[in-house]
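Example record for the data management plan.
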Amino acid sequence: MNPTPNRRDVLKAGSATAAGLAWSAALGLAAERAAAADAPAAGDKPAKADAAASPATPSPGARRPFKKAVMYGMIGEGKTVTEKFRILKDCGFDGVEMDSPTGLNRDDIKRASEETGILIEGEVDSAHWRETLTHNDPKMREAGVRALETALRDCAFLGGTSVLLVPGVVDKSVPYDVAYQRSQENIRRVIPLARELGVKIAVENVWNHFLLSPLEAARFIDEFDAPDVMRWHFDIGNIIAFGWPEQWIRILGKRIVKLHIKEYSRTKQNKEGMAKGFDVELLEGDNDWPAVMKALDEVGYNTWACAEVGGGGRQRLKTIAGKMDRILAM
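Corresponding structural encoding:
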């Protein structure tokens, strides 16, 4: 039903080399704007599916009150959307992250959400790897803009709060500086619609050879001067091959609006190849979860945690939910 490659396959397609990047402009500008980003923007109201505010630091051993979600493709049982959502609810989850554009009927998704109580945490722009906002073909870039608009409208219709966006791809034919300019230019075109709908555009860190430093990532977001709309969807596992998640979290701060929870093993990376680093269960990789959770507490993050790992049937989903609960209590 999703016409694009799944995100794990895309990760396997290549890797980025982070060493040697020096972004002097990012250093100054990101540091200068960090304090401003930590303050809530005027009119930046919490959307329907967001968790209520909670203390920044939980009691020792207490599970943080994050809402738990999975990506829709992880639900390996159930024939209909409603059946899948019921299974998800039974396994201890609060919500789900959907794809858009998608072959699913959004009325069916909304009905399933209302009947089961499973919230739509947000949408993933399903076209952003193919119809990239940085493509050399203007028609592809235009298609990418249209796809992002569709995802924003679907998200608002379903009560979600953000659309995950891969902002572009750098490769041999698309230079880094060109990608930076094209990405911002095309995202700016969509900001008025996002603001009208009350849905955030959440840029994600992925293996796209782009935005490879947390200072540069912060700078990229701040340059839009739209903190009510432009935020970051932080993928914890994607960073470990190149750095340390807790460092990114502290630098991005209030810019983070959503989380992807997954593991990565540097040992497997070194012995078997980059993509193999993801072939490890939660709590069995190189994530320093206590340090990650502490950093999230420090920046005041308290909304959603969405797993992006290998899914399956009820028992598999219950196992994932249990491991997420352990992580959230660290």
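Summary line stored alongside the record: The CA atoms of residues 5 and 230 lie 25 Å apart.
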